[in-house]
């Protein structure tokens, strides 16, 4: 259990560091911005209690908000992401026979499940975050294009990091 805590603490620090010092400055024509920091929430083990999941999500969002000068936007979006994660996992994990797996990584869950998981949760997070940022329906077409393009970019980075940093484990 202490190894899991250490691994997740390192993930938290690395993802926040990458988001704040590297990815914050990467945008494509002000349409696509990667938010890789949400990978921390996505990779938390299945057995994390919901109250801890929401607290960690809020803490992650507040940390990003501190560096982005966005008071509460990322915190709110991360809590929504945690809620959608709980719902998605409760619907899919037992149905697909993954109830004995420790965490939802690309190497453990497989490409198809992880891609669907990452895409759905990223779309929810980005939709909520970018709509809170604009807080207007007058530019809904621009906002939706930002949601889609940013989600594609973020999921692409998630898949690349999953392929690079997680080794393949044999399923039983």
UniProtKB/TrEMBL annotation:
Q: Transmembrane region positions?
A: 6-23, 35-60, 72-93, 114-132, 144-166
Keywords annotated in UniProt: Membrane, Transmembrane, Transmembrane helix
- Going by the entry's taxonomy, the superkingdom of the source organism is recorded as Bacteria
Q: What is this protein called?
A: Rod shape-determining protein MreD
Could you read off the lineage of the organism from its UniProt record?
Answer: Bacteria, Pseudomonadati, Bacteroidota, Sphingobacteriia, Sphingobacteriales
């Amino acid at each position: 259990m202490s190894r899991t805590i250490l691994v997740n603490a390192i993930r938290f620090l690395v993802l926040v560091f990458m988001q704040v010092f590297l990815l914050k400055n990467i945008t494509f024509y002000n349409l696509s911005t990667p938010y890789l920091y949400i990978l921390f929430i996505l990779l938390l083990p299945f057995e994390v209690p919901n109250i801890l999941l929401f607290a960690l999500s809020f803490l992650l969002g507040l940390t990003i908000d501190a560096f982005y000068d966005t008071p509460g936007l990322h915190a709110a979006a991360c809590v929504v992401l945690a809620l959608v994660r709980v719902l998605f996992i409760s619907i899919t994990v037992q149905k697909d026979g993954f109830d004995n797996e420790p965490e939802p990584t690309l190497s453990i869950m497989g490409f198809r499940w992880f891609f669907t998981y990452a895409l759905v949760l990223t779309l929810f997070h980005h939709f909520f975050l970018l709509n809170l940022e604009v807080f207007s329906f007058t530019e809904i077409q621009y906002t939706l294009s930002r949601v889609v393009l940013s989600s594609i970019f973020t999921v692409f980075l998630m898949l690349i990091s999953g392929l690079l940093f997680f080794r393949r484990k044999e399923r039983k």
